[in-house]
Amino acid sequence: MKKRTYWFYKNKRTKYHPSLEIESNKERWKNMELTSSPTHSGRYIKLRHNPSGNKKDAFIRKYVRNDSIKTRGQLLAKYHLSEEDLKEIEEFLINNKKS
Question: pLDDT at position 2, please?
């Protein structure tokens, strides 16, 4: 399997919350929201390491958004996923891929 590179961007559609880009083209981008205060629905992956380097807990929403490329804001170059968190997110994406 080819190693993927993931980037975080501000998402204009979600009040500039950071979002992890899963894939993109000229018209759309698929992304997952990052937050430090999830709802109590349990639909989040708790990350072992906060991608921003902050001490607060960080969570990725278990939902892949499909937004217009125009909603993708500034690249957050200082945000990085740990190998453990990357593996967990990739497993979620593989197990929940719609055919």
Answer: 53
Q: How many CB atoms lie within 10 A of CB 35?
A: 16
Judged on CB neighbours under 10 Å (0-12, 13-18, 19+), 49 is middle
Find the Cα–Cα–Cα–Cα dihedral 92, 26, 82, 64, rounded to 10°: -30
Q: What is the pTM of this model?
A: 0.89
Cα 81 to Cα 7: distance, rounded to the nearest angstrom: 9
Three-state DSSP state, 61? strand
* C-alpha count within 13 angstroms, C-beta hemisphere, residue 47: 31
Q: Tens digit of pLDDT for each residue in 9-41? A: 999 999 999 999 999 999 999 999 999 988 888
